[in-house]
Amino acid sequence: MDYGLDIIALLAGVAFIAGFIDALAGGGGLLTIPALMAAGVSPVSAIATNKLQGTFGTGSAFLAFARKGHIDFQRFRWPAIGAMIGAGAGSYVLQLIDSGFLAGFIPVLLIAMAIYFLAAPDMSDVDRHSRVGMAGLFAIVATIGFYDGFFGPGTGSFFTTALVALGGLGLVRAIAHTKFLNFCTNMMSLLVMIAGGKVVWIIGLPMALASILGNQAGAHTAMRFGGKGVRPVLVVMSLALTVKLLSDPANPLRMMLHF
């Protein structure tokens, strides 16, 4: 399928906004995946292409936090390995599933993620004692990694919530380590998707550049102001894009519900 410059530019703009939001609170994929599908990209390729732009974006934010000394690589080396194992398995399973099922299932997941963002409690910026040991953190991170490899939107928020509620980190440190773990999951998932030939490079590379810029802006904003205030925007935009997907008469979920 051919993609015009207008479509590529629009998707790059979405990637910038998603990257900014992702660095602050996670969930940027709630915007990029439905935008890619609305542009005519198949569900699996949309997720794969999102991994390309997401890898560059989260890598950029991760480096911004690392340069400021916010990441404890020694403590999080095993969770990072768990994240990569989970993501690789999730991306492999994704490629075995029928694309028609995914086209109908993705709007359901998007709505579920929007509800999660609405209902999730606010998080403190004060460090506390960890509630789980290293084995527990490894298992939790690997599970979230599997979800990221299989679908992805909301992964950053899941990591941040787990690190605050169970890992004992304050919000800014949790966001910093989320970027590290999310970079690991995105990189592993991307490698599996490239091996499967699922990435749409002509769209993914401009989106990757825009995502880098968005994540850089978001990371510096998070370090200065924290990650508050972006949830309503994320929820509204993700629901609007979900409606766009369901407006297609050929969408399997719409056909099943007969509306």
UniProtKB/TrEMBL annotation:
GO cellular component labels? plasma membrane
Q: Where in the cell is it found?
A: Cell membrane
| Annotated keywords | Cell membrane, Membrane, Transmembrane, Transmembrane helix, Transport
State the organism of origin.
Answer: Sphingobium phenoxybenzoativorans
Note the superkingdom of the native organism: Bacteria
- Report what the protein is called: Probable membrane transporter protein
Which family is it part of? Answer: Belongs to the 4-toluene sulfonate uptake permease (TSUP) (TC 2.A.102) family.
Q: Any stretches that span the bilayer, and where are they?
A: 7-25, 76-94, 100-120, 132-150, 156-176, 188-209
